Amino acid sequence: MSLPQQLRDESDFDQLPDNVPVTATIADIEEKKGFIVYYRFVIEVKTKGNNKYLIYRRYRQFFTLHQSLELKYSSEAQPGYYTCQLPSLPGKVFMGHKKEIAESRIPELNNYMKRLLCLPTWILLDDLIRMFFYQTESDSQQVPRVLRRLRPPTRRVKTVKPKTDLLSAPRAEAVFDFSGSGRLELSLKAGDVIFLLRRVNTDWLEGTVRDRTGIFPESFVNIIKPLPESDSDEEGGASKSGNHAQSSYSCLRCYLLQPEGIDTRDICVEEDLSTQPSYEDLLSRMRDVFQVEDIALNYRDPEGDLIRILDDEDVTLMVQESKQTGSKVKRPVNQFPWELLVTHAKDLSVYNHED
């Protein structure tokens, strides 16, 4: 693996742990329907120890990382010996189509990560950087998908029939459906048995199913009998066993309180129950759900009083208080323990003003 030039010249690079990230490249973007619809970047990370894995990050996580690094290492914010010239991060974009914005950011973010990982080795050991590039449990449980920037060349695919001894032939079972893109990629249905012909690259295999031959991503199958030349310890092998969790959908109950009555909604989001959304995301989603612009967000405290939410700190308080009262209310297993009560922004009559 080719290391960034600055790292290769560092005399203390060999002393760094093998799990320190040295390269990171965006393999694709992915739409997520959380509290708001957003796009996140699928990033392939390679470590000093030659390990490879995928992480999933939003632009706001890049922005938070960069702000934290500037406070810690920029000469303007923190004059002193332990400072360095940080790479520049593309700024926030407030207008435009979200997918187009995400696509346009890919080259800039790739350059940002490349320059970031070429900084002096003592910065690479900083927890801010290591945690950003660390593969969390949530990252490792994502359902695999075809990453367009990791697709291998397909023009040299050969149509070779499998061995006649089917019981001894290398084979795999499809764990997920896969729709091939073009005639050279093999479409699969979960449960299909694929007879393996060869390895195309680290992530893709060639095989035959029902007299059709083509290539397919290894992450969509469970290997029953490996190819003779395949290595069970290959990069990323631990993540290719097919034991991936399906995307989790959680339910959020919300109410619109109006003089004429209460409008109750249950909305589904692709977020884990432990996720804490931002105030702005919740406000934007509630405006979209109830089609009302001038609204206020609220929750009920343990005493039953309505409390207005004004910022992220109030959201944190709501989540914390819901844990205290959550055991008293029986909810479906996939429903958030906190609920949102939406009121018109100028309606103060809903609050308890007693001293």
TrEMBL record:
Gene3D superfamilies, per the entry: Phosphatidylinositol 3-kinase Catalytic Subunit, Chain A, domain 1 (3.10.20.90), Phox-like domain (3.30.1520.10), SH3 Domains (2.30.30.40)
CDD domains: PX_p40phox, SH3_p40phox
Segments forming domain SH3: 167-226
GO BP: any one term: superoxide anion generation
Positions of the PB1 domain: 249-345
SUPFAM superfamilies in the record: CAD & PB1 domains, PX domain, SH3-domain
Compartments it resides in: Cytoplasm, Cytosol; Endosome membrane
Major subcellular location class: cytoplasm
Molecular function in Gene Ontology: phosphatidylinositol binding; superoxide-generating NADPH oxidase activator activity
Annotated Gene Ontology cellular component terms: cytosol; endosome membrane; NADPH oxidase complex
Superkingdom field: Eukaryota
PROSITE patterns, per the entry: PB1, PX, SH3
Membrane topology qualifier: Peripheral membrane protein
PX domain segment(s): 19-140
Keywords: Cytoplasm, Endosome, Lipid-binding, Membrane, Phosphoprotein, SH3 domain
Stored SMART domains: PB1, PX, SH3
Role: Subunit of the phagocyte NADPH oxidase complex that mediates the transfer of electrons from cytosolic NADPH to O2 to produce the superoxide anion (O2(-)). In the activated complex, electrons are first transferred from NADPH to flavin adenine dinucleotide (FAD) and subsequently transferred via two heme molecules to molecular oxygen, producing superoxide through an outer-sphere reaction.
Name by which UniProt lists this protein: Neutrophil cytosol factor 4
Organism (species): Carassius auratus
Lineage of source species: Eukaryota, Metazoa, Chordata, Craniata, Vertebrata
